[in-house]
Each structure stands twice: as structure tokens, then as C-alpha cells.
């Protein structure tokens, strides 16, 4: 009798510990990925707030600060809080917070990130190294991120949770491209110095593409066999 009472509880404790470790690893990885671009964004905001001297590198931000401030603040909210939206254990135990933060924090913040990014691409004077190809990539990424957010909202409104999860993961992956771009750019800069226009777009596009590939793998892995046609 003792064995029969205890055995059903053991898997539950094991699953709970497994989810806790998994949640911690996911959150840590995503926060680390967002850390460097977040620090750079905070530095840019401090430049604007303190009226730092205008240089060729920051002139466009100092002359029109609102779009970049909105972009940076939106990205900080989106990447920071968003890291906890994808934790299986936290989401299942605190579904109310998941819904509240998604509706009132993350979707608005993600929309601001996408729209401000598109605005800056259209109207800011960019450095010569950021050529036409990179500008096109930024238009594509900003438009796709906005579309994924809209599709994610529409999916949850019709209670298609699987599709909602997929679209939101894709939107978050694109937003986190800035973190991965540090990894795709830094080794080249250390070994060869500043890139030319061609290698600049290769490094930037590689960050977005890596994130999209990883996102698709995560989405596919999370689907039930019936949803995958297995």
C-alpha cells in the first residue's frame, strides 16, 4: 500500500525539478543573449539624456532622439520580459501573468520595436558601411516581426494556442537578432578589423537567419505528432 501511494508522486517531483532546470537554462540563455545589445542601448539613451557631444556616429540619434529611445526602451521590455514567456513551467503555473504581460507589455513593446526600426531605416542617415542590401534586410525583418506579432494575436483570439506559440517565437527570434549579431560580428572584427559593406550585411543577416532557424526547430519540436503529420 505504501508503494502504491508514493509511486504516483515521484514522477511529479521529477517533472517539477526537470521543468525548473529547463526554465532556468532557457531564461539565462535568452537574458545573456540580450545583455550586450541592451547595454549598448542603455549607453545610447544615456548619451541622449545627458546631451553628450554630437559625433558622426551618434548625430542621427541626437538630432531625432525619439525613435531610437522608443526602439531601445521597447527592446529592453520585449527582450527582458519576453525571456520568461517561453518558460514551460512558469507559463503553466502562472497563466494569468503570461496573458497579462503578453497583452499589455510584450505585444505593445514588440510593435514599438518593429515600427520604430522601420522608421529609423526609412529616415535616418545611415553610415556608408550600411549599404542598400542591409537596409533591405532591415525592412524585411521589421515587416516580418510586425506581421508575426499580428498573426500571433489573431491566433490566440481564435484559441489556436499552437499557432500563437509559433508566431510569437518567430517574432521574438527576429527581435533577438541584435544579440546573435554580436556573436556573428565580434570574431571577424577581432581577427580582421572593421568589415566592409559586403561582410557587414553577411554578419548582420547571419544573426537573423541563425535565430530563425533555431526558432523553427523549437517550434517543430514543440508540436504534437498529430500536428506534424506523424
Write up what this structure looks like.
83% of the residues lie in helices and 0% in strands. The chain has 10 helices and no strands. The chain has helices at 2-6, 9-50, 59-63, 65-85, 88-93, 95-123, 132-157, 161-175, 177-192, 197-222. Helix 2 (9-50) packs antiparallel against helix 4, helix 2 (9-50) packs across helix 9 (177-192) and helix 4 (65-85) packs antiparallel against helix 6 (95-123). It is globular, with a radius of gyration of 20 Å. The two termini are 40 Å apart. 24% of the residues are buried. The model is unreliable at 1-16 and 225-230 (pLDDT under 50).
Question: What's the helix count?
Answer: 10
What distance lies between the first and last C-alpha atoms, to the nearest angstrom?
40 Å
| Element-level helix/strand string | HHHHHHHHHH
Give the amount of beta strand, in percent.
under 5%
Q: How many E-type strands? A: 0
Please sum up the structure shown.
The chain has 230 residues and is an all-alpha fold. 83% of the residues lie in helices and 0% in strands.
SSE topology:
Layout: H1 2-6, H2 9-50, H3 59-63, H4 65-85, H5 88-93, H6 95-123, H7 132-157, H8 161-175, H9 177-192, H10 197-222
Write out key terms for the chains shown.
single chain; 83% helix; disordered C terminus; mainly alpha
